[in-house]
Design goal:
This protein is an all-alpha fold and 357 residues long. The protein contains 14 helices and no strands. Helix content is 53%, strand content 0%. Helix 3 (71-80) packs parallel to helix 4 (89-105) and helix 3 crosses helix 9 (206-217). The longest helix has 28 residues, at 226-253. Residues 66-100 form the SAP domain. InterPro entries: SAP_dom, SAP_dom_sf.
């Protein structure tokens, strides 16, 4: 006959009473208060290195030091802060550190009037490495002063259409003044620099390439356009010749005829000047110059020789012809090619990161 299991209460008659007894004891201990409770042991701090987490103010990791940056990166950071960016690496780092200290001094101290601790009292934002686009916008480039080829080049960098009239190109750039060179790879930036014939344009880190391209954007012309470069050189040469002739004329009006020594036919030039005044052309070169000075001294107004007019006239005619070709190609009115090139040289010489052929 199979065995039958007895109910739990029957198998252990003391089980139920035992549970009731333990419950009463627990309630009794709670009512007695915490003074009879066992003290809680404080957990000892761990000495393990993995438990220690170093954070800077605000919980962010501290920025990487300037010493780890390249000269090109340091120069780019200085340029974005509106600071000089020439010199050796230690000088560049010093400028950045001084700038950081000045920015910290703009933060009000605790209890200072006009602000709370940690709030900046300066109205100007602190520039950082990622503020290059805002910096370009603040400069407000004068697109109307650029050649047509340069306008198209700047539109290409912005990935915008390059077709249309000059006014349309300018309007398109004015609506999109910011160029994001950061979107390009280093190889693409190098290709842009080479397209503009920028010396060492493909060298250096990405930040240096971007700095060179931004500097090139400040120029009026497309430095990679050979046809327009020839026009600039021709116009500049004619302007130089006319400028020298003007200086000679001014010197002659002051009695200084020494400039004729720079001409191969200096003797004939002096003879022609004497003949124009009905003076004798006999004697040495020094005697001829003295004769011209004596004649100048006896005149109430300086004698205007046709010599310079004959020299200036062909140079002026060639300049006018080149100017028409220039304005047709560039789309803008030319005042002086030499002035434009001198302005360009000043921009290039002020930036050690940039140079072009």
């Amino acid at each position: 006959m199979p065995r039958t299991k007895r109910p739990l209460a029957e198998s252990d008659p003391n089980a139920s009473s035992s549970r009731r007894t333990r419950s009463k004891v627990a309630k009794s201990n709670e009512s007695e208060g915490v003074e009879n409770a066992a003290p809680i042991q404080a957990k000892k701090p761990s000495n393990k290195k993995e438990d220690v987490v170093k954070v800077s103010n605000g919980g962010d990791q501290e920025p990487e030091g300037y010493a780890s940056k390249t000269n090109g990166e340091l120069a780019f950071m200085l340029r974005e802060r509106g600071l000089p960016y020439n010199g050796i690496k230690s000088v560049l780092i010093g400028r950045l550190e001084d700038f950081d200290e000045k920015q910290k001094s703009n933060i009000s101290k605790p209890g200072a009037p006009g602000g709370k601790a940690g709030e900046s009292t300066s109205a100007e934002p602190i520039l950082d490495e990622g503020n290059s686009e805002a910096d370009s916008l603040r400069r407000q480039t004068d697109f109307a002063s650029k050649d047509n080829s340069k306008l198209r080049l700047m539109l290409e960098a912005r990935k915008l259409p390059v077709s249309g009239t000059r006014d349309e190109l300018i309007a398109r750039l004015e609506q999109n003044p910011i160029v994001d060179y950061d979107q390009y790879t280093p190889n693409e930036l190098s290709a842009m620099a080479m397209r503009r014939k920028m010396r060492q344009g493909a060298a250096g880190p990405k930040a240096s390439k971007i700095a060179r391209l931004r500097q090139n954007d400040e120029l009026k012309r497309d430095t990679g356009n050979s046809q327009e470069d020839t026009l600039y050189i021709g116009l500049s040469s004619m302007e130089m010749i006319m400028g020298l002739l003007h200086q000679e004329q001014v010197s002659a009006s002051r009695g200084d005829y020494s400039f004729v020594k720079h001409y191969r036919n200096s003797g004939k030039i002096l003879d022609d000047m004497l003949t124009e005044r009905n003076l004798s052309d006999a004697g040495t070169m020094a005697a001829k110059m003295d004769r011209l000075r004596a004649d100048d001294a006896g005149r109430e107004t300086p004698f205007v020789s046709p010599f310079w007019q004959e020299k200036v006239k062909p140079a002026q005619a060639e300049w006018d012809q080149l100017r028409l070709a220039f304005e047709a190609a560039t789309g803008r009115t030319l005042v002086s090619a030499r002035a434009d090139l001198n302005e360009e040289d000043m921009i290039l010489k002020s930036d050690p990161l940039y140079a072009h052929k």
